Amino acid sequence: MPQIRISIEGSNGSEASELEIRELVVAGWTGRDKAAMEKHIAELEELGVKRPARTPIYYRVAADRLTTASSIQVCGGDSSGEVEFLLAAHPTGLLVGLGSDHTDRKLETYNVTLSKQACEKPIGARFWRFDDVIGHWDELVLRAHIVTGGRRELYQEGRLSGMLPPGELMAGYDGGARLAAATAMFGGTFAAIGGIRPADRFEGELEDPVLGRKLAFAYDVATLPIHG
């Protein structure tokens, strides 16, 4: 079971802790805005990815794919990141973090579940308490930038009002009001601005405009050659 060193941040400062995860879930097609979700489905169809059998849908991924490393290695040049909020069951209560569902897009055209497993899932090491943000959840903003050839550009952006509420996502997975112990769930993403594409570096953030704070993380992507 992976143990990740984290910092839980609140109004009284930050607290060092560890997060144990034995069950990792990637929730897909979680848009509250059906038109926006259709746009994301359409952009993936352009890459050859079949439409999901249902929405939302929940993909299981090996928990040891989670990493707080500042770089990952991928096979070939067909993978890309997706900024997402992360819900994590901690002994002291549900936490909210930030991560990237980095996915092999070529493999995704063959099998979505396998494509989710193919790449590591980078996350930030800083978390908020769920109870501190649920009252203004819809005001939170997800944002991502990518860097390619030294050029930084906005890649994704949207308020969480555009996604299904977290309680509905959790209940849709196992019927519970909160996640089971040692479970983490990626909550979905927004359409890429300019289309899905690989990058040398991926940067994500979750902004809380009500409490005036932000979670952020970044990672570099090293591409390994494919020989046969």
Protein model, in words:
One of its GO terms (molecular function) is catalytic activity. Pfam families: DUF2848. This is DUF2848 domain-containing protein. InterPro entries: DUF2848, Fumarylacetoacetase_C_sf. This protein has 228 residues and is an alpha+beta fold. It has one domain: Fumarylacetoacetate hydrolase, domain 2, CATH 3.90.850. 16% of the residues lie in helices and 44% in strands. It contains 5 helices and 17 strands. It has an 8-stranded mixed beta sheet with strand order 2-1-12-9-8-15-3-4. Strands 6-17-16-13-14 form a 5-stranded mixed beta sheet, with no helix packed on it.
Short structural summary:
About 15% of the residues lie in helices and about 45% in strands. With about 230 residues, it is α+β, with helices and mostly antiparallel strands.
What key phrases describe this protein's structure?
228 residues; Fumarylacetoacetate hydrolase, domain 2; eight-stranded mixed beta sheet; 5 helices; 17 strands; globular; DUF2848 domain-containing protein; catalytic activity
What's the topology here?
Elements: E1 3-10, E2 13-20, E3 23-28, H1 34-45, E4 57-61, E5 66-67, E6 71-75, E7 79-80, E8 83-90, E9 93-100, E10 103-104, H2 105-108, H3 112-118, E11 121-122, E12 126-129, H4 130-133, E13 141-148, E14 151-159, H5 166-174, E15 183-186, E16 201-208, E17 213-224
Parallel strand pairs: 1-12, 3-15, 5-11, 6-17
Antiparallel strand pairs: 1-2, 3-4, 7-10, 8-9, 8-15, 9-12, 13-14, 13-16, 16-17
